[in-house]
């Protein structure tokens, strides 16, 4: 898994909500894939559930079913004093919301070719692998939110509730750019417990949170912690940035993917998606987890339900924000703005005539593009961070335009850029 994006690495095309931005952590961010299960044993840290068997005579399938666990503890979470009267204990949150949390099992069929030197004349074999994640019910129509990487490439998807009933689910749509997917099951509305959505724009550092999911295959587990930071940026499965991500120290591990991060009122404020493992090479929880903000989830899920896909606007440039010191050193025409580092051929930015720096200067060990355009505002909004421009682009649809005010040397220009569609990956 690629490292979390830094400001200099970000491509200006990721979906975003909110307005503020902090530099992302430098440790590696890992998607939270399935816990690995072989028979009845639980092995943490693998990408898939290898209850795999070759199709044919004597094949077996390992079925993972939910068993109702012991309820969470009674220790209360901590709250803003103004909201103390509405706060719930961890046990109350678990009793109220756990019924709406599901286990998601996706099955892939992998075709394995034979070795022509040792398996002459033997036909290719098919192996079935299963990936385990989490999800939660969002409405009475049977829609379930989970992570894209939990169900990507799956031939079949099943969900399981606390009563151990496995139900086949249909993938309504998925969006690799936000690592989100929406499933749907055919169930009676009275049997479903949709979880209430909160407002991730109101999240503050220190807020108490609870995570419910299936870490390492341990079904319906609850953990608690706080919001460690917000406005982080992480890498989506297609390597585009996901902005305004919530960082938490609530213990989440492989198998928590797609499960809810819940505030002290029992409302979902994020979808657990990744963990950072530092530079140790391990893949377990070290107290740094990331959740996609629910305000992003709300928008993306709505589009997936309506259209089955999400189309993100794309400008096709990478930039680097300047400081007054850099502006003075390079003798730029403005103290703040975004230096254009690259322009993708065939993009709207290229068609509009935006120019990237042809040279590179190194200042205190940091590389800077030199000689390109300096973007100082977009649609009249002064720019000093990548996050601001990404937010403005994310609010638009492919085919719409954005007006950029740029300096080319000492000359001030206004360029109208027609936005395209975000490609499937950055590669």
What CATH architecture of the largest domain would you give?
Beta Barrel
Give the CATH class of the largest domain: Mainly Beta
In the CATH hierarchy, the third-tier topology of the largest domain is known as Thrombin, subunit H
Termini separation: 14 Å
Strand order of the largest sheet: 10-11-12-15-14-13
Give the overall shape: globular
Please describe the biggest sheet, giving its number of strands, its sense, and whether it closes into a barrel: 6 strands, antiparallel, barrel
How many β-strand runs? Answer: 25
Cα-atom radius of gyration: 23 Å
Figure out the total of helices.
Answer: 6
Strand content: 35-45%
What would the average pLDDT be, to the nearest integer? 80
The unreliable regions are: 1-28, 33-84
- Assign the structural class, choosing from mainly alpha, mainly beta, alpha/beta, alpha+beta, or little secondary structure: mainly beta
Please estimate the helix content. 10-25%
Estimate nothing, just give the exact number of structural domains: 2
Task: Outline the structure in words.
The strands form 6 sheets. A 6-stranded antiparallel barrel has the order 10-11-12-15-14-13. The chain has a 6-stranded antiparallel β-barrel with strand order 4-5-6-9-8-7. Strands 17, 18, 21, 22, 23 and 24 form a 6-stranded antiparallel β-sheet that branches. The chain has 427 residues and is mainly beta. The chain has 2 domains: 7-55 and 64-307, Thrombin, subunit H; 313-421, Pdz3 Domain (Roll). The protein has helices at residues 90-97, 148-151, 294-307, 324-330, 348-352, 386-394; strands at residues 29-31, 36-38, 41-43, 101-112, 125-137, 143-146, 156-160, 166-175, 180-184, 208-213, 221-235, 241-248, 260-263, 268-276, 289-293, 313-314, 317-321, 338-343, 359-363, 366-370, 374-378, 381-382, 401-408, 411-418, 420-421. The chain is globular.
């Amino acid at each position: 898994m690629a490292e979390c994006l830094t400001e200099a690495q970000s491509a200006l095309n990721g979906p975003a909500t909110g307005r503020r931005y902090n530099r992302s952590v430098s440790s590696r961010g890992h998607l939270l894939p399935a816990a690995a299960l072989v028979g009845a044993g639980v092995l943490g840290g693998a990408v898939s559930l290898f209850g795999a068997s070759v199709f044919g005579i004597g094949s077996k399938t390992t079925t993972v079913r939910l068993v109702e666990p012991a309820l969470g503890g009674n220790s209360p979470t901590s709250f803003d004093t103004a909201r103390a009267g509405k706060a719930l204990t961890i046990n109350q949150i678990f009793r109220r919301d756990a019924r709406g949390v599901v286990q998601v099992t996706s099955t892939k069929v992998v075709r394995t070719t034979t070795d022509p030197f040792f398996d002459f004349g033997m036909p290719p074999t098919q192996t079935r692998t299963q990936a385990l994640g989490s999800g939660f019910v969002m409405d009475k129509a049977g829609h379930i939110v989970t992570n894209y990487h939990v169900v990507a490439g799956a031939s079949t998807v099943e969900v399981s509730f606390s009563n151990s009933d496995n139900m086949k689910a249909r993938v309504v749509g998925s969006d690799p750019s936000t690592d989100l997917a929406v499933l749907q099951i055919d169930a009676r509305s009275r049997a479903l417990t949709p979880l209430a959505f909160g407002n991730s724009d109101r999240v503050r550092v220190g807020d108490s949170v609870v995570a419910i999911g299936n870490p390492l295959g341990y079904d319906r587990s609850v953990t608690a912690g706080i919001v460690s930071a917000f406005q982080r940026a992480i890498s989506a499965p297609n390597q585009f940035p996901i902005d305004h991500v919530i960082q938490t120290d609530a213990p989440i591990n492989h198998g928590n993917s797609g499960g809810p991060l819940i505030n002290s009122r029992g409302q979902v404020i994020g979808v657990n998606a990744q963990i950072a493992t530092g530079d140790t090479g391990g893949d377990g929880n070290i107290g740094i987890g990331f959740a996609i903000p629910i305000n992003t989830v709300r928008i993306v899920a709505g589009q997936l339900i309506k259209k089955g896909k999400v189309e993100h606007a794309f400008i096709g440039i990478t930039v680097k924000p300047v400081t007054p010191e850099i502006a003075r050193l390079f003798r730029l025409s403005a103290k703040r703005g975004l230096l254009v580092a690259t322009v993708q051929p065939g993009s709207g930015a290229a068609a509009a005539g935006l120019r990237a720096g042809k040279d590179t200067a190194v200042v205190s060990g940091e590389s800077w593009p030199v000689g390109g355009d300096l973007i100082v505002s977009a649609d009249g909004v002064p720019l000093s961070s990548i996050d601001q421009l990404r937010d403005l682009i994310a609010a638009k649809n492919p085919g719409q335009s954005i007006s950029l005010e740029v300096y080319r040397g000492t000359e001030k220009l206004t360029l109208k850029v027609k936005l395209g569609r975000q490609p499937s990956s950055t590669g």
